[in-house]
Amino acid sequence: MTRIILLTACFITLLSCNDGDVLVTELHFPETLQYCEGNTDLIVYSIKESPYESLSIKLPISDKDNLTSVISPSPTTTLSSTNTFNYRSYTGDPSAIFCNSLPPTSPSILTNYEATSGTVKFTTTLIEDDNDGIPANLEDDNTDGDNNHLTNPRDTDNDGVPDYLDSDDDGDNVPTANENPDPNGDGDLSDALNTDGTDQPNYLDPDDDNDGTITRYEDTNGDNDPTTDITDPTIGPDYLNANATTSTINDIYRNHTKTQSHTCVITIIDAILINSVTFEELIYENRDLGIINTTDTNFSYEVLFN
After folding, report:
1. How far apart are CA 227 and CA 138, in angstroms?
2. Distance from the CA of 196 to the CA of which of 58, 119, 167, 270 falls in 20 to 30 A?
């Protein structure tokens, strides 16, 4: 849960507190934000129950790019009469209100505070995973002795993509995940599939059957997938059959895939929420509204042959 602290400025003409008093209010909202998009607007919101309340921002649709763009300095949007920040309370669950082109007639809004000045900041980070079933820390030879796969990482096939981000570590056009690097999923790679029983296991071996024809070249039909070329069905694909040695030059890598997870922290800076009925002010000073997580589990990208 995210704890939001609001400073409430009271006015003696409207409320029963001394002029200039500042009250501290805590609002507990879920840390993970929701969002939906229309033709021109991006709505970011968080809902809490007991009682039902919401924090929401209406932003230009172009701000959706900020959820997945790692930029320094962090991009910002200025609140205005059209880009507003709201705190509301309701008579019931408002979940259907935000992403519905025809909002329901209920629940009713009990209170509405709106900020039309201030700043929204987007701080986005990217976490990448090659989905090959091997933990990143095990995809590094640690030649620099720092036990950190991010520095001087291993790149088995020298394609410019380090193994911990490479869905095909040995560049043979058979994805690492399909070469049984960890058959029983216990994190111990000592039992990785090694068809030819020599040198490297299949996921690091450019010639899996040790027949003198590298796996990438055992692609007679030219579809960039050695698993579909089968001379002897009783043995399997030619790249695992030492008796099948036909070589077809293919120096094109099939597209790689990986997961891209973006985490965007949305911060509200110097916003004053004003109740249009009572003119009560809620001061929202430089606080994180919450986090939006987006994940693309099959991000595909081209790797050029060196």
Report:
1. 26
2. 167
For the cut 80, the answer to whether the pLDDT of residue 1 exceeds it is no
Is 55 strand, coil or helix? strand
Mean pLDDT in residue range 5-27: 45
**pLDDT, tens only, 131-148:** 999 999 999 999 899 999
Closest CA to 262 of 55, 43, 44, 71: 71
* 236, 239, 241, 243: CA torsion to nearest 10: 140
How many CA atoms within 13 Å lie on the side-chain side of 35? 26
Non-local CB neighbours of 236 within 8 Å, separated by 6+ positions? 230
Cis peptide bond prior to 181, omega within 30° of 0: no
Model confidence, pTM: 0.80
Pseudo-torsion of CA 238, 240, 244, 249, nearest 10°? 60
Please, what is the end-to-end C-alpha distance for the chain in angstroms? 48
Sorted by sequence, the CB contacts under 8 Å of residue 86 that are 6+ apart come out as 54, 55, 56, 57, 58, 112, 113, 114, 115, 273
- Percent of the chain past pLDDT 90, that is, above it, reads 82
